[in-house]
Amino acid sequence: MQRTSKTFIALLAALAGVSALNADVVETSNGARLVGKITKIEGGTVHLATPYAGEIGIKQSEITAMSTDDVLAVRLASGTRIDGKITTEGGDLKVVGADGTVSTQVGKVAASWSAGGEDPQVSAMRRKWTFVTSADIAGKEGNTKSTSIGLGFVAGLVSPQDTLKFYGSYQYATTTSVAGVETKSADETKGGIDYSSFFSPRYGWYVRSELEKDSVEGIDLRSTSDFGATMRFINNDVQSLVGRLGVGYRFESFPVGANKKGAVLSTGLTHKYSFSKFAALVTDLQFIPAMDDFADYRFVHDSALELPIASGFWKLRLGLNNQYNSRVIGTRENMDTTYYTRLILNWK
C-alpha cells in the first residue's frame, strides 16, 4: 500500500513537470512568476490563460521576461512581423522563427496572436457592411382618429477610417376629425448617400447628397449636396461628438411658384452617449442657411433613446424629431414635430 502511494505521488510530480514544460511563463518586476498560456498581446496587455484564475491581463510595462512553448505571430512597434517562439535572454526578448531570430524589448512588442491567424490590425481596418431597418405604425381613436406609418433603412460600409452610408425613409400620417374630415398630416420621402473619411484620429472630410419630397410641406423636390470638413471632438467607448462644417448647393421645386436654388452653408453636430450597454441617447442637429440670405434656413433636430430588446439585433427607439423652415409656402407652419416609437433591426 505504501509503495502504491509513493508511485502515485511520483506520477503526479511527473505530470506536473510535463505540464510546466509545456506552459508559457511571464515574469514581472515585482518578482511574480505566472505560468499559463499566452493567448495574445494587445493594447499594452499580455493575456495569459491559466488553470487557476482563468484568463488574466498583465500590463506589458510590468513584465521583465516571458517565454512561450508554442509559435506565436508577433508584430513589433517598428512594423516587423515574425512567427516564432518567444524567449528572454539577458534582458532581451528574442523571437526565434524558422527564418532567424529577432532581438527586441518587451515594450516594443505591439501585438501577438495565434500563428497562422490574421493580424488584428488588418481585421480592424477591413471595411464591413452594416444594415439597419426600422418600422413604426401608430393609431389613435376618440375625438379624432389618426394613423401613421414610418419606414427607414441605413446600409453602411464601415471601417475605423471611413464610412459610406446609403439611407432612405418614408413617413405618412392622416388625421380624421369628429366631422369625418380626413387631413394628411405627413407625407415625406427622403433618400441620400453620405461618405466621410478621417485622415487622422480627429480630422477628416465628408461629402453628401440628399433628395426629399414632401407634399404636406409643399415640396415637389428638394435636392441638397454639400461637402466639407468633419471633426471628432470626443471619441471613446462611452461618448462621441462629431461636428461638420461645409458648403453646398440646394435646389427646391414647388407645385406652384418659382423654383429656388443657390449655395448653402452646411453645419451639423452628432452626439451619442451610452449610459450602459443597455441604453444610449443619440442626438443629431443640422443647420443649413442660404449663403446669400442667412434668414432663409432649415434646422433639423432629432433626439432618441435607444434600448435593446430581445437580443442585440433588436432595439426600441423612442424619439423626437423637429424640422423648422424659416420660409414656408402659404399658411403652412414653420415647425413640423414628430414623436415616434420605432422598432429597429440592426445586423452586421
Q: Care to describe what's here?
A:
7% of the residues lie in helices and 68% in strands. The chain folds into two domains: 2-123, no CATH class; 127-347, Lipocalin (Beta Barrel), CATH 2.40.128.130. The chain has helices spanning 2-21, 120-125, and strands at 24-28, 33-42, 45-50, 54-59, 63-67, 72-76, 81-89, 92-97, 100-104, 109-114, 128-140, 145-158, 162-176, 182-198, 203-214, 219-235, 239-253, 260-276, 279-290, 293-309, 314-325, 335-347. Mean pLDDT is 87; it is low at 4-21. It has a twelve-stranded antiparallel barrel. It is built from two helices and 22 strands. The protein is mainly beta.
What is the CATH H-level superfamily of the largest domain? Autotransporter beta-domain
Distance between the termini: 63 Å
Order of helices and strands: HEEEEEEEEEEHEEEEEEEEEEEE
Mass-distribution shape: elongated
Describe how the helices and strands are arranged.
Elements: H1 2-21, E1 24-28, E2 33-42, E3 45-50, E4 54-59, E5 63-67, E6 72-76, E7 81-89, E8 92-97, E9 100-104, E10 109-114, H2 120-125, E11 128-140, E12 145-158, E13 162-176, E14 182-198, E15 203-214, E16 219-235, E17 239-253, E18 260-276, E19 279-290, E20 293-309, E21 314-325, E22 335-347
Antiparallel strand pairs: 1-2, 1-5, 2-3, 3-4, 6-7, 6-10, 7-8, 8-9, 11-12, 11-22, 12-13, 13-14, 14-15, 15-16, 16-17, 17-18, 18-19, 19-20, 20-21, 21-22
Feature tags:
22 strands; elongated; mainly beta; single chain; 348 residues; twelve-stranded antiparallel barrel
Short description:
This protein is mainly beta. It contains 2 helices and 22 strands.
